[in-house]
Amino acid sequence: MIRFESVSKSLSGREVLKNFSLNIEKGSAHTILGPTGSGKTVTLRHIVKLLEPDDGCIKFDGVDISSFNGKDLELYRTKFGYLFQSGALIAWMNVADNVALPLREKTKMGEVEISRRVSEVLELVGMGGTEGKMPDELSGGMRKRAGLARAIVIQPEVILFDEPTSGLDPIMSRKIDDVIRDLKSVLGVTVVMVTHDLISAFSLSDRISMIFEGQIVFDGTVPEFESSENGLIRDFIAAQVPKVTKQY
Q1: What is the domain count for the chain?
Q2: Which residue range is the domain that position 99 belongs to?
Q3: Would you tell me how many other CB atoms lie within 10 Å of the CB of residue 116?
Q4: Average pLDDT of 220-238?
Q5: Contact at 8 Å (CB) between 42 and 51?
Q6: What is the band of 167 on the pLDDT scale with cuts at 50, 70, 90?
Q7: Cα–Cα distance measured from residue 159 to residue 170, given in angstroms and rounded to the nearest whole number
Q8: At what angle do helices 140-152 and 95-106 cross, to 10 degrees?
Q9: Torsion 120-123-127-129 (CA) sign
């Protein structure tokens, strides 16, 4: 469905992606792991053409997206929902208006239909009844869920998640995992997730890819990742496993 073919990209004089190739299958939940600065978010931005490769190409359903501009690009982007790391709610709009924004900008829906759709997606993410609340009245987890409602309101084929559990406590992180899992089941969407959270990655993913210094160093299933002898993967896993010191 989404394919990177030998993509290279430099930003501020640093090569962020190096001869980068990746295949994301339709209907799958594909997680991209890696250290800070390894190119994970840059990868997501290339998918929706917020960035363009210096070399190589990105294909969606076999079509090179490099030529998309204007209306073609606008139509292409309607296939995607994007949950930014912060939730990215607009501070002066209430929840309903934040969620409705893509419908007002990208569709010809009337206000009655927009209101119905907004209430529907807020219920899906466990935010029913919060339409009138302002972003500063919401907890971190609620802001993430409101951002997710906005990401799915135009019924995308693919949802991109940039660190969906970042900044949340462990209990709320697992609730966000549950919401993502339920949405994938109900909507049948393809999920592409960037995260440092191994619990999320292991519980949600069909496939995991790991980036290191702009290149894919692993691509496989969760069991294959867990059993890998690759030193980078062993270190990444070990860094998230708590060490308990016995008290005598």
Answers
A1: 2
A2: 94-155
A3: 11
A4: 93
A5: yes
A6: confident
A7: 22
A8: 20
A9: positive
Tens of pLDDT, residues 101-140? 999 988 889 999 999 999 999 999 999 999 999 999 998 8
CA dihedral for 203, 209, 210, 211, sign (positive or negative): negative
3-class secondary structure, 75: helix
Same domain, 6 and 111: no
| Pair (74, 166) in one structural domain | yes
241 vs 189, higher pLDDT:
189
Using DSSP bridges, classify how beta strands 80-83 and 158-162 pair: parallel, antiparallel or unpaired. Answer: parallel
Question: How many C-beta neighbours within 10 Å does residue 61 have?
Answer: 11
Across 162-198, b (16+ Cβ under 10 Å) vs e yields: bbbbbebeeebbbbbbebbeebbeebebbbbbbbbbb
Tokens representing 92 are 């002066």
**Which residues sit opposite 80 in a β-bridge?**
158
Does any domain span residue 56? yes
